[in-house]
């Protein structure tokens, strides 16, 4: 069976879709998620082959969730939405299929056939993730959405990934690789990314090493491996 995850913030829609999907007998439903942050965690741990993904969700929508997923973990995507069919034509080249709410069993069976054939052929997911508009960061019982432009730098340690702004550090579920690939942040060392707009100066230390001073007064290491590409990106 096809390993699938359902993501929808509306309880009734989520339960109804789970019932319909189970009735097809084609899917092993790994679970249901109500928001993008929980879904990202489940995608990393469960590694589903397919997402039934609602587009309109609070805080972070379906497109923003897809922008947070690493390329090697990207599942196939079936959008499930109340958007009208005309509007959804724009998504056809980006996703495996889409279902309009309320989902009809007959239309779902067509999706099942398409999913089975795609997986049988071994076709990779077609969705190309867009640049990140927000970096979701957790603290206490809240999620703070930080614009990449507001970031001073990002670093990783044994406790996870931390986004540093003028307000302080915040923990995020996103990986350094996703942040590097889908924002303007630049890698300066294996465990550090820097906002190029916040670089005050680069101090050359010799032996191919350097350090960055940011506009907020932080000092970041620059390794031999990344110094040349950092200079190239900054046209130095």
How would you characterize the overall build of this protein?
The longest helix is centred in the middle third of the chain and has 17 residues, at 105-121. The N and C termini lie far apart (53 Å). 32% of the residues are buried. The chain has helices at residues 11-24, 36-46, 62-67, 85-88, 105-121, 176-182, 224-233; strands at 2-7, 27-33, 50-54, 76-81, 97-100, 135-139, 142-146, 153-157, 160-165, 168-172, 186-189, 192-194, 199-206, 209-214, 219-222. It has seven helices and 15 strands. 29% of the residues lie in helices and 33% in strands. The chain has 236 residues and is α/β, with parallel strands linked by helices. Helix 4 (85-88) links the parallel strand 4 and strand 5. It folds into two domains: 2-121, 3-Layer(aba) Sandwich (Rossmann fold); 136-233, OB fold (Dihydrolipoamide Acetyltransferase, E2P) (Beta Barrel). The model has no long low-confidence stretch (mean pLDDT 91). The strands form three sheets. A seven-stranded antiparallel sheet has the order 7-6-10-9-8-12-11. A five-stranded parallel sheet has the order 2-1-3-4-5, with helices on both faces. It has a three-stranded antiparallel sheet with strand order 13-14-15.
């Amino acid at each position: 069976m096809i390993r699938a995850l359902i993501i929808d913030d509306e309880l009734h829609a989520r339960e109804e879709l789970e019932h319909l999907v189970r009735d097809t007998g084609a899917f092993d439903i790994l679970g249901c998620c109500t928001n993008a942050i929980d879904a990202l965690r489940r995608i990393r741990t469960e590694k589903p082959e397919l997402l039934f993904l609602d587009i309109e969700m609070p805080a972070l929508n379906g497109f923003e969730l897809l922008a947070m997923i690493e390329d090697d973990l990207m599942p196939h995507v079936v959008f499930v939405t109340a958007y009208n069919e005309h509007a959804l034509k724009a998504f056809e080249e980006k996703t495996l299929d889409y279902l309009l709410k309320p989902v009809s069993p007959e239309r779902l069976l067509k999706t099942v056939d398409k999913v089975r054939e795609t997986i049988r052929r071994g076709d990779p997911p077609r969705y190309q993730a867009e640049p990140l508009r927000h970096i979701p960061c957790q603290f206490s019982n809240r999620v703070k959405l930080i614009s990449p432009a507001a970031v001073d730098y990002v670093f990783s340690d044994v406790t996870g990934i931390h986004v540093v702004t003028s307000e302080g550090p915040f923990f995020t579920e996103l990986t350094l690789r996703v942040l590097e690939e889908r924002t303007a942040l630049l890698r300066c060392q294996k465990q550090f990314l820097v906002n190029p707009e916040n670089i005050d100066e680069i101090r050359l230390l010799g032996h191919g090493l350097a350090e960055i001073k940011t506009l907020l007064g932080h000092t970041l290491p620059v390794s031999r491996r990344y110094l040349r590409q950092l200079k190239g990106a900054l046209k130095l």
